[in-house]
Specification:
By secondary structure, the protein is an alpha/beta fold. The protein has 11 helices and 8 strands. An 8-stranded mixed β-sheet has the order 1-5-4-3-2-6-7-8, with helices on both faces. α4 packs parallel to α7, α5 runs parallel beside α6 and α5 runs parallel beside α11. The longest helix is centred in the first third of the chain and has 19 residues.
């Protein structure tokens, strides 16, 4: 986690803060693994605290931090950290899109414009904190003096949060991260992306459709990119009665980044 709104000690740090018996840096080193700053292989075995070692013996030599009870606490700590860091964001626009888009591509500049325009309207910008479309939206918001939030995920091929995030945190669990997107976004713009973008988009649409979250405008940017998918949605899916015509009204399309932001902000209910 990083940014001025982050508390000095996070819940998972407190949970790991045993009285050290054999290494003053034990808790820090282990917490780095939990937070994703280094790999488990890079942390020497001696860094495990004395309390953890004692607990390990009690459980037949199995490190308790790799068991289900500790996993529940880790999940809980991520929820608490996220709620604590994001509670005061106010109205926020979430921008989804591919991490593979390059700075030289037009989609990058268009996403930058979305972030800039949102920040100029006093709206927080939230992304997945990675490169590509996410970086562009964060960059536009940050350069316009706005709040630029990045909710990253710990993955082997990711390098961490992009440099334009001024309030960010990394999550271990996808489902906790998606909960933060849903809870703290007032509207969404979905730019071209892959499986992850589709997953996030359909997660939001499902929750809106079923009333499990407040209504949120969902704007799909680049009509040609989304045409094939939604031809199928409006064809076989609708024809067989697997969705209703009202469900289709939950999505809007545009090729203009300014209009995308206007539609998103105009439909915000909070």
């Amino acid at each position: 986690m990083r940014g001025s709104m982050i508390p000095e000690q996070t819940p998972d740090q407190a949970l790991l803060a045993f009285p050290g018996e054999d290494d003053d840096n034990a808790d820090t080193d282990e917490n780095n693994v939990v937070r994703g700053n280094t790999s488990a292989a890079q942390v020497p075995k001696a860094s495990i605290s004395g309390a953890a070692a004692r607990t390990s013996k009690v459980h037949g030599g199995k490190d308790w931090r790799h068991g289900d009870p500790w996993r529940v606490l880790r999940i809980q700590s991520e929820f608490v950290e996220g709620f604590d860091a994001l509670a005061d964001l106010g109205r926020a626009l979430c921008v989804f899109g591919s991490a593979r888009v390059k700075e030289s591509e037009p989609e990058y500049r268009q996403a930058m414009r979305m972030g800039e325009m949102a920040a100029q309207s006093g709206i927080t910008v939230i992304t997945g904190g990675g490169p590509g479309i996410m970086e562009a939206a964060n960059r536009g918001a940050a350069e316009a003096g706005g709040v630029s939030v990045g909710l990253g995920i710990e993955l082997p091929h990711e390098e961490g949060l992009n440099q334009w995030v001024n309030l960010g945190m990394n999550f271990r669990y996808f489902f906790v991260r998606k909960m933060m997107f849903v809870k703290y976004s007032s509207a969404l713009i979905v730019c071209p992306g892959g499986f992850g973008t589709l997953d996030e988009m359909f997660e939001i649409l499902t929750l809106v459709q079923t009333g499990k979250t407040s209504p949120k405008p969902v704007v799909l940017f680049d009509t040609q990119y989304w045409k094939g998918l939604f031809d199928w949605v409006q064809g076989p899916m609708l024809d067989r009665g697997l969705i209703s015509k009202d469900d289709l009204k939950k999505v809007q399309f545009t090729d203009d980044p300014d209009e995308a932001v206007r539609l998103a902000i105009g439909g915000m209910t909070k």
